[in-house]
């Protein structure tokens, strides 16, 4: 009999949502260029406009206060917005301070190594052992920069839901930063939809970036919601299709966003939290003496992510073992190349001896009881094998 396999790598990318699948099968898709002036082009344009309205409505926002930029995903968005702030500060002869954390996704941390003009400064934000931000310390540091450069512009990155450990950093805590003049907050919202109950509440922030493939839409498309008062400059130039981003718009990808977002309404968070807790408990028990679960160290956690490590098994070896036994999980950062590299999360916890042993299990939006039981059985089998081989 074929082995039943479970895909437990939803933070890396999710399968297509049911509505997206049905829509693709129907064949009634938007292929025409939305800039074309014929009937089909106008249908594509109409669809993009309608999805724009639907997204704003999903987040209870209105076009007067907020705009939407469609792009290829969060990696593009972080480069584009940072570039825009870099050019703006240079043109206005002001310093730009980019704030980030070592625990951010590489889409953010990689900005530091780009060749910026000398007007760009960086501040590494501090995070506590429970993955919360050390707000008092970070605020004091920014104010110190502000006193050195009174007309400083600040681009502050905030990771809402951590892709590896699933910790949730509340947006409400950002209020004290918003009080600083010319400080703009870019919220990495990639792992929020469908994974925390209040993912639609964009309470504090100037830019919120989402990757559609993380919640059931097509790959290669994402969107950022940004405050209309922001003056932004394009990173990708050309035909000027979207004022902020040139290039033929992805009408089909954009439509898939609306369908997938709607499907998230079917999620029962109470059930998801309790199923995650069951697996976390089982893993903690099985790992006793040979590893540990790390995700439970965070004060507030999402509904689908469990991060753990072994003392003596590297993540690439463990991944193969899990895969052979029907559990498709992941190691390290959600979108890394697959090679085992030291985990920023384990380093942050002072667990550098195990830094290449991190593993992440990220659950589906709608895991059912039968699937959960099968996953539990498979975990027990895997751990028995590990004990037998005396790892
Ligand atoms: C928190 C977070 N931010 C940014 C990204 C980058 O998204 P993308 O690869 O879709 O550009 C990811 C991808 O895993 C992520 O998890």
Task: Provide structural commentary.
This protein has 391 residues and is an alpha/beta fold. 35% of the residues lie in helices and 15% in strands. The chain folds into 2 domains: 132 residues, Aspartate Aminotransferase, domain 1, CATH 3.90.1150.10; 247 residues, Type I PLP-dependent aspartate aminotransferase-like (Major domain) (Aspartate Aminotransferase, domain 2, 3-Layer(aba) Sandwich). The strands form 3 sheets. The chain has a 7-stranded mixed β-sheet, sandwiched between helices. The chain has a 3-stranded antiparallel β-sheet with strand order 9-10-12, with helices on one face. A two-stranded parallel sheet has the order 1-11. Helix 1 crosses helix 7 and helix 8 packs parallel to helix 11. The site of pyridoxal-5'-phosphate has 12 residues, from helix 3.
Descriptive terms for the model:
single chain; 391 residues; alpha/beta; Aspartate Aminotransferase, domain 1; Aspartate Aminotransferase, domain 2; 2 domains; seven-stranded mixed beta sheet; three-stranded antiparallel beta sheet; 35% helix; globular; binds pyridoxal-5'-phosphate
Structural class: alpha/beta
Output the CATH topology of the largest domain. Answer: Aspartate Aminotransferase, domain 2
Strand content: 15-25%
Cofactors, ions and other ligands in the entry: pyridoxal-5'-phosphate
Helix content: 25-40%
Name the shape in a single word.
Answer: globular
Q: State the helix count.
A: 11
Note the main sheet. 7 strands, mixed
Beta-strand segment tally:
12
SSE sequence, one letter per element: EHHEHEHEHEHEEEHHEEHEHEH
| Distance from first to last alpha carbon | 29 Å
CATH architecture identity of the largest domain: 3-Layer(aba) Sandwich
User: Which regions contain 5 or more consecutive residues with pLDDT less than 50?
Assistant: none
Strand order of the largest sheet: 2-8-7-6-5-3-4
């Amino acid at each position: 009999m074929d082995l039943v396999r479970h895909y437990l790598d939803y933070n890396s990318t999710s399968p297509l949502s049911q509505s997206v699948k049905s829509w693709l099968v129907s064949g009634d898709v938007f292929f025409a260029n939305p800039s074309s002036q014929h009937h089909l082009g106008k249908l594509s344009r109409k669809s993009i406009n309608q999805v724009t309205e639907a997204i704003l409505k999903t987040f209870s926002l209105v076009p007067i206060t907020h705009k939407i930029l469609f792009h290829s995903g969060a990696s593009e968005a972080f480069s584009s917005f940072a570039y825009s702030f870099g050019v703006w500060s240079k043109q206005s002869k002001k310093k730009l301070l980019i704030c980030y954390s070592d625990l951010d996704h590489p889409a953010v941390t990689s900005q530091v190594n780009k060749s910026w003009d000398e007007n760009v400064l960086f501040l590494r934000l501090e995070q506590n052992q429970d993955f919360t931000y050390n707000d008092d310390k970070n605020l004091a540091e920014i104010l110190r920069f502000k006193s050195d450069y009174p007309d400083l512009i600040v681009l502050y990155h905030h990771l809402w839901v951590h892709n590896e450990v699933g910790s949730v950093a509340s947006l409400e805590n950002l209020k004290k930063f918003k009080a600083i003049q010319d400080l703009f907050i870019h919220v990495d919202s990639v792992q929020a939809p469908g994974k925390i109950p209040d993912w639609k509440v964009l309470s504090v922030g100037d830019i919120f970036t989402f990757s559609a493939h993380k919640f059931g839409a097509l790959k290669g498309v994402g969107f950022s919601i940004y405050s209309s008062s922001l003056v932004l400059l394009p990173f990708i130039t050309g035909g000027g299709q979207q004022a902020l981003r040139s290039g033929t718009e992805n009408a089909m990808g954009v439509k898939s966003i609306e369908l997938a977002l709607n499907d998230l309404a079917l999620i029962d968070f109470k059930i998801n939290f309790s199923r995650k807790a069951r697996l976390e408990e089982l893993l903690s028990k099985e790992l006793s003496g040979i590893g540990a679960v790390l995700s439970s160290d965070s004060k507030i956690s999402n509904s689908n992510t469990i991060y753990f490590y072994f003392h003596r098994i590297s993540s690439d070896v463990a991944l193969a073992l899990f895969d052979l036994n029907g559990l498709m999980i992941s190691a390290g950062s959600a979108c890394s190349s697959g090679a085992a590299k030291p985990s920023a999360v384990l380093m942050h916890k002072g667990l550098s001896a195990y830094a290449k042993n991190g593993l992440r299990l990220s659950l589906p939006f709608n895991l059912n009881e039968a699937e959960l039981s099968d996953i539990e059985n498979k975990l027990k089998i895997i751990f028995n094998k590990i004990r037998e081989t005396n790892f």
